[in-house]
Structure formats: structure tokens, C-alpha cells
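Structure in, sequence out. Go:
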């Protein structure tokens, strides 16, 4: 007998609209995330269904009740999390309220989403968002994943993300990946006070040579990525062509060339799905019934 469908409902908090060429092809950022997470869910757990609803937070749209959803997903944006705008302040306040009053609702943020989640929830620990003095991080870069983060995800948590190779096909629990390649396009970064670390049980997800905070993780509650697993070559290229329209030709071309590389978006999406399943019993692909840590 087939297992009953297990549904995860996500409120997609759209903090921007894709550039015209991207919007025409994939629709909203929320729609883009939905498709990627739906595909990832099929790989992670065959009885898992992803449902989502789009909200335009720039226009003041929010769920009637956050508790109607299993998770909030905050998209990227051309805005900065510290901008003095009404919608930005409202989103900041909303995220903190949901975090403090709806413990069952998980929170995931990407790029701008990562930054405003950190700003909202970790502000009291001195975490800030600012312009990165190193400038833009563009194109595909390799994230060094934090070993403590991988351990917190639990044995085998990430191993299911990578497609089996001839060397690992018969290994019941292949080693977790140590790195993750994602597309990037950001000029702000999350900064932890010098000499300080994230409060327990929060962990860094990883880092690159350019950016020290590539994501944060609180088991069972919050996961963020500075990078864009929802972006591919086409999306990031078209986005940069708009963002960098007035840039020096050499700088723009360098950024565009950096985007024309392979990435690990599927693996990153599956990690998000596994995060969304933390604490819930579900039939995993090939693993039987499991309750993630």
C-alpha cells in the first residue's frame, strides 16, 4: 500500500519581482522556489507534496495566519535589509514575531532573505547587515560547509543530496559533501561582531573566500543561504545584465563569465527539503520511515 501523501505548506514571501526576461520565463520568485522544492521533494521523500502560496510583501501582503503554514520562505531582493522603507520594517518585525510566537513554523531565507532573517532574529546578539567592503560576490563560488553544521543535520542528512557514483552506489551512508557550489549576486553581507560567535544552538552553514557568513542554521527552526540555489546561468546572467547595466564593461563581463559554471542547486534544494522535514516522520526515498533530527 502506498504511503499517504505528506504535505508541507510554504508561504512564499516575495521581496521583489524578477527582472523582465526572467519573469516572463519562470514567473515570481515564489513560483521558481516552488518548482525546485517540488522536484527536490520527489528525490528526498516519494510521499512528500509541496504546496505554496505567494505573498508580495513589498505590497504589504502577508498570510492571514502564519500558523496556516509549515514554513515561511523569504526570497531575494534588489533592496537592502537595512533600507528605511515601510515594507522593509514591516517584514523585519513580522519575522521576529513569527519566530517568537509560532515555534512550529520554520523559516528559510535566500540572499536578501538570509540577511533580513539574521537582522530580525539575531540583532540582539550584535549581528548586523552592511555593505561588504570587498564588493560584489558574483557568479558560482564554492562554499566550505561547516562541519558542525553537517553534524547537526544528522548522519546521512546531506548524503542523500548527492547522486550516487560507482564508488558510493553500494555505500549505505556515503559521506556528507564538504562543499556546495551556488550562484551569487550580492553586495551586502551578514557581519557577526568581531570576537563573537552565534548564540547556541545557532551555527554557521559555511563560508567562501569572499564572504564569512554563507548561511545560518538553528536546528528545527531556521536555515538561510546567502547564495541562490534558485538561480541558474540564465537567471543570474539576466539579473546581472540589469543590475550592472551602468557598470564598467570589463567588470560586467567578468561577472557574467563567473556565472557560466556548474553549480549544486539540486543538492542545495534537497538540503532545504530535509530541513523542512526536521522533526516530522516521513517515508524517505530508500530509507524507510525516518524522523529527521
Amino acid at each position: 500500500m502506498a504511503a499517504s501523501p505528506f504535505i508541507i505548506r510554504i508561504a512564499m514571501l516575495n521581496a521583489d519581482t524578477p527582472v523582465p526576461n526572467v519573469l516572463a520565463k519562470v514567473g515570481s520568485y515564489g513560483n521558481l522556489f516552488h518548482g525546485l522544492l517540488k522536484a527536490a521533494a520527489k528525490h528526498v521523500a516519494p510521499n512528500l507534496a509541496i504546496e505554496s502560496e505567494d505573498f508580495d510583501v513589498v505590497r504589504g501582503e502577508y498570510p492571514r495566519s502564519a500558523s496556516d503554514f509549515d514554513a515561511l520562505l523569504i526570497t531575494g531582493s534588489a533592496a537592502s535589509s537595512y533600507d528605511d522603507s515601510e515594507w522593509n520594517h514591516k517584514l523585519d518585525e513580522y519575522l521576529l514575531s513569527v519566530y517568537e510566537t509560532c515555534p512550529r513554523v520554520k523559516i528559510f531565507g535566500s540572499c536578501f532573505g538570509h540577511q533580513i532573517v539574521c537582522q530580525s532574529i539575531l540583532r540582539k546578539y550584535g549581528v548586523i547587515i552592511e555593505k561588504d567592503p570587498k564588493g560584489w560576490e558574483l557568479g558560482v563560488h564554492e562554499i566550505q560547509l561547516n562541519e558542525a553544521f553537517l553534524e547537526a543535520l544528522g548522519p546521512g542528512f546531506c548524503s542523500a543530496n548527492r547522486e550516487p557514483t560507482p564508488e558510493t552506489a553500494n555505500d549505505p551512508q556515503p559521506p556528507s559533501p564538504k562543499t556546495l557550489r551556488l550562484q551569487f549576486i550580492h553586495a551586502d553581507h551578514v557581519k557577526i561582531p568581531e570576537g563573537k560567535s552565534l548564540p547556541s544552538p545557532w551555527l554557521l552553514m559555511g563560508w567562501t573566500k569572499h564572504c564569512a557568513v554563507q548561511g545560518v542554521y538553528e536546528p528545527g527552526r531556521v536555515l538561510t543561504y546567502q547564495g541562490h540555489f534558485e538561480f541558474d546561468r540564465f537567471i543570474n546572467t539576466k539579473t546581472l545584465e540589469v543590475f550592472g547595466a551602468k557598470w564598467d564593461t570589463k567588470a560586467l563581463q567578468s561577472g557574467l563569465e563567473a556565472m557560466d559554471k556548474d553549480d549544486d542547486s539540486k543538492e542545495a534544494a534537497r538540503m532545504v527539503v530535509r530541513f523542512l522535514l526536521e522533526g516530522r516522520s516521513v517515508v524517505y526515498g530508500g530509507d524507510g520511515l525516518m524522523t529527521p533530527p
